[in-house]
């Protein structure tokens, strides 16, 4: 291969995404190994610049860094931290599922990254196991901000056009809406997958998956893995809630990881919510 772009020598093709190809590369002067995403769809240039700006604005131990962004011969290029290791999706597939201890550990670190983003009004919108890589030390790193956006920023997607990976999308995203709670729904999907090895919404077509998601119609994880604790089951139930307002936030997930007993609190409010719902009808 050995193609050189702005002082970076491309050494290996790593894969392709929705907007471009990703290569491993080495900087000729510093010898730093990086990942470079080359835009293949020029009509997506504005979204590509948005990805660079958003990811470059954040610094978190569980979010991959952005080093540089430039345009070479009309080709936008994004230079990113190279994470040498498998994706979480690959690890789940290899092992069929993860131990409950490992799933909670990864959950806490990804929830920490989401909480950091949400405090800065950034929504990732494509959280999934394939967008998380593990370092040699086993630390998860959140990647791919191609669909991320800042709250109240101009839309880069046509109204009514679905954004994200269907199996991880929250109910409101099928109506073209997304917010921090949408990321937390995806976190619930991810936790379910880590514990069981399966997606909670396993329809055979996107439309069938969408119908199941919009009703939060999923098989209890205990049916697939009987050894799963009550705490894990309850946490999934509190993340995969149709109403975004009732979903746990990333901060609440972090609090629960520190003190699982919090899962059993606030249930006394449920009868009040149902009564209020009836009064509004």
From TrEMBL:
Superkingdom, taxonomy of origin: Bacteria
Keyword Nucleus set for record: no
Molecular function as annotated in GO: ATP binding; protein serine/threonine kinase activity
Domain Protein kinase: 8-262
PROSITE patterns: PROTEIN_KINASE_ATP, PROTEIN_KINASE_DOM
Positions that bind ATP: 37
Name of the featured protein: Serine/threonine protein kinase
Classification of source organism: Bacteria, Pseudomonadati, Bacteroidota, Cytophagia, Cytophagales
